[in-house]
Amino acid sequence: MKGMSPCKFCYLLLLTVLPFISEGQKSDEQAIRRVIEKQSEGWNKGNIEEYMKGYWESDSLIFVGKSGVTYGYKNTLDHYRKAYPDKSSMGLLQLDLLHFKRLSSNYYYVTGKWSLKRTIGNLQGYFTLLFQKMRNSWVIISDHSS
């Protein structure tokens, strides 16, 4: 702009663009929270398949747990079915989201705590999830739960 220093122009540009970036981040975080809430609801109904809808349905999905690395959606589903064969072993899932980190417009890193309340003994641990936006939806592409 004629007569305006480059610093003032950049400042005005930032003031114009930042609200849109911030609003986009908020809506992305809300969408990711909805994915996680739906997973929790599915789990608490005893429906592992519904819980798995939050994951990327691909052979490239990565799940890391106490027994090591599992590759692929089907293998991860099979792992959950084996580890939690019925509603009593699944219990009630509580997820506490501790930290969201936007890595780019298509990737988020989420850290949280999970706990299972069960009649056969409670469990708890922590997780880190890598979300990717694909076809306008957020999915977990990598899960490390301990």
Structure notes:
The protein is an alpha+beta fold and 146 residues long. The protein has one domain: Nuclear Transport Factor 2, Chain: A, CATH 3.10.450. The chain contains 4 helices and 6 strands. The longest helix has 39 residues. About 10% of the residues have low confidence.
Q: In what order do the strands lie side by side in the largest sheet?
A: 2-1-6-5-4-3
Give the overall shape, derived from the CA principal axes.
globular
**Rg (CA only):** 19 Å
The share of residues in helices is 25-40%
Task: Characterize the largest beta sheet: strand count, sense, and whether it forms a barrel.
Answer: 6 strands, mixed
Indicate the mean pLDDT: 89
The class by helix and strand makeup works out as: alpha+beta
Q: In terms of per-residue confidence, which ranges show pLDDT below 50 for 5 or more consecutive residues?
A: 9-22
Strand elements, count: 6
The total count of helices amounts to: 4
The number of distinct structural domains comes to 1
Assess the beta-strand content as a share of residues.
35-45%
Distance between the termini: 55 Å
What is the fold's blueprint, element by element?
Elements: H1 6-44, H2 48-51, E1 62-65, E2 68-71, H3 73-83, H4 87-90, E3 92-104, E4 107-117, E5 123-134, E6 137-145
Parallel strand pairs: 1-6
Antiparallel strand pairs: 1-2, 3-4, 4-5, 5-6
Quickly describe the structure.
With 146 residues, the protein is an alpha+beta fold. The chain has four helices and six strands; from the N terminus they run H-H-E-E-H-H-E-E-E-E.
